[in-house]
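We treat protein structure as text, and this decision shapes the records that our systems exchange. The tokens are whole numbers drawn from a learned vocabulary of local backbone shapes. One such record is reproduced below, unchanged from the form in which we store it:
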Amino acid sequence: MESLAKDKLIPLDSDLYQAGVDQFEHNMNYILEELKGNNIPVVIGTLVSNLLNQPPFIAEKSGAGKTFETAEKLYRDEKFDEAKIEFLKAKDLDELRFRAPESFNSIIKDLASKHGASLIQIDSTFNVVSRNGIVGNDLMTDHLHPNLAGYNMMSGLFLEGILKLGVIKEKPEVALDSKVLDSLSMVNLPFSKLDSLISDYRLLGIKSQWPFNRSNTKIPLEKMRPPVNYIDSLALQSAQGELKWDEAHIKAANWFVAQNDEIRASKEFEVLISQFHYTTKFYNMYADALMQLKLYEKAKVILLQSYAISPGAYATKWLGILALSENKAEEGKKWLSESINYDARDPQALYNLAGAYINLKDFNSAKIYLGKCLEVDPKFPGARELNSQIKNIK
């Protein structure tokens, strides 16, 4: 932000300000004309920003700071309608234009009407649901980016606008109320506490820099919010770039497994899988964790999902071992035979395949695979003893 805009101040109603407004109007008009000319339906939303909890970045110029102070006093006096007017003025007077002026919303409304676009009043709706009718930190993370609740509401408004256009012809298999859909989306959101903490630290980092902090003193993240537990420390390392995002989630998942916390461990793996759904790596890690927790039926489900994405040695080996644990020797043989096709030198797969053949009374085949197991790993646990036990069986 500093490299892009420091010292690039634009006073309200100056020639440079008006040039920016004209450019915005020209560009939006061009885009909407092109879309309309190609018969593409358009849903367009007004702009919204943090009014209540974001003072002007350059408070000392153009009266922006004094106007904001007036707005805050009116707000404290519970004169909320008057306060909102002053908060909007303070935002527009701020010469550092990281929040769009209200003139942009007027342009959006006029152009939507001109080109027949469906208008979504994002700003008005945010105001309605905000505390005392003024948008602040309850829906915003910073000066203009919504938080999770804000984005959830915004997406719902756009979906409603799209549905009203009638461009979606398909009917849902199960008709659900939008509030029910929202609640289901939030419950199933692939987002863990670790992600929230990483976001918190990153936002702290941003807000410790210009223009939120205009001093030359940079405060380290760990001092602004000292980590109080292991997950906090992972979030801090990730936010500082010391730990990759996926590595942080893997460490968190393994920590929860060690705590015997199935729910939180599963959440971390589900987050990883949602991000990297095209690779078997995290499915296999998840299955391994579930087996450590002795949740074998759940592990089998995940292994089958891994196999569906890309058959490989790991999933087939453990599907075979789990089948053997259920006394399903034929099924176990099938999976383990496939596993050694992918990796012929896995002693664990070879040993268990020998076990499957023993259960099927095929001792000659069992001897062959025990021999291969010992060839790969002469000290594999139990292999030599088992080989001695069946040596003389025909």
The CA atoms of residues 111 and 122 lie 16 Å apart. The longest strand covers residues 43-45.
